[in-house]
Amino acid sequence: MKKAVVVGVDGSPESLAAADWAAREAALRGLPLRIVHAWLWQPLDIPLVQNRETEAQAARAVLREAEDQVVGRYPELPVSCRVLPETAVVALLAEAERSELLCLGTRGHGALLGFLLGSYGQQVIAGAKRPVVSVRAYDGEYPVRENGEVVVGQQGSPEESADVLGFAFEAASVRGVPLRAVRAWSLPPIYTWSASLALADAAGGLEPFERKALRDALAPWREKYPEVQVTEYVEMGSAGQVLVEESAEAQLMVVGRRARQAPIGTRIGSAAHAVLHHARCPVAVVPHA
Question: Domain 150-287, what fold?
Answer without folding.
Answer: Rossmann fold (3.40.50)
